[in-house]
Amino acid sequence: MGERPVARIGPPPETHYDLPADFAAALGQCVASFGWLEEILKRAIFALDRARLADDLTPQELQVWLAKMGDLADDSMGTLIDRLDSAMRRHAGLHDRDAITDHLHDIKRHRNHLCHASWRPTDDPGLWHPAFVNTQGVPFEHPLGIGDLRRILHDTVQIGQRVIGVMRVTGIDGYWAGDDQV
């Protein structure tokens, strides 16, 4: 690399830090709640779209729609949020669409840095820094503690419950084939 020094943003890449068990458990609960939220988003999109289907669809038309719904399985959280937003706008009588969508985008930002960060210790043993740079090149600046993770978990469950409420407005409970086998 010649004589120019290379900037380092932290410890060498081979440095791995074990998270304290209580912090790791709180982080794991957040990550699990993001998976639950993604499932809720998929079920709500399904219910909102299903509620608007014509009663006289042919079997072939129904299969085309079901294939489209099957594509939900691979969608990212951002795409699911956009699809839910569109589905809510096509369904009359739903309130707070913008607030729900905005809250979901906030949770998505948390999901991205919590799931994709490399965790670094700070001078405060109760705080850990998620070394993460988003797609716009903006690094995550603030260290997090267990209280922050618990707040994110609470917010994730809260918005998931709001999305369940939206889904149930359709008259479709959101159960899928196989739910009764769990």
Descriptive report:
A two-stranded antiparallel sheet has the order 1-2. Helix 1 runs parallel beside helix 3, helix 1 packs antiparallel against helix 4 and helix 3 (77-89) packs antiparallel against helix 4. The protein is mainly α and 182 residues long. The mean pLDDT is 85. It starts with 20 loop residues before the first helix and ends in a 13-residue tail after the last helix. The protein is 55% helix and 4% strand. It is built from 5 helices and 2 strands; from the N terminus they run H-H-H-H-E-E-H.
Main sheet properties:
2 strands, antiparallel
Number of DSSP E strands: 2
Gross morphology is elongated
In the predicted model, the low-confidence regions spanning at least 5 consecutive residues are none
H-E string = HHHHEEH
Helix content: 40-55%
Radius of gyration: 21 Å
Through-space gap between termini: 57 Å
Q: Please report which band the strand proportion falls in: under 5%, 5-15%, 15-25%, 25-35%, 35-45% or over 45%.
A: under 5%
Structural class: mainly alpha
Helix run count: 5
Cross-sheet strand order for the largest sheet: 1-2
Mean pLDDT: 85
Summarize this structure briefly.
The chain has 182 residues and is mainly α. 55% of the residues lie in helices and 4% in strands. The chain is built from five helices and two strands.
What's the arrangement of secondary structure elements?
Layout: H1 21-51, H2 59-70, H3 77-89, H4 97-116, E1 118-121, E2 128-131, H5 146-169
Antiparallel strand pairs: 1-2
Helix pairs in contact: 1-3, 1-4, 1-5, 3-4, 4-5
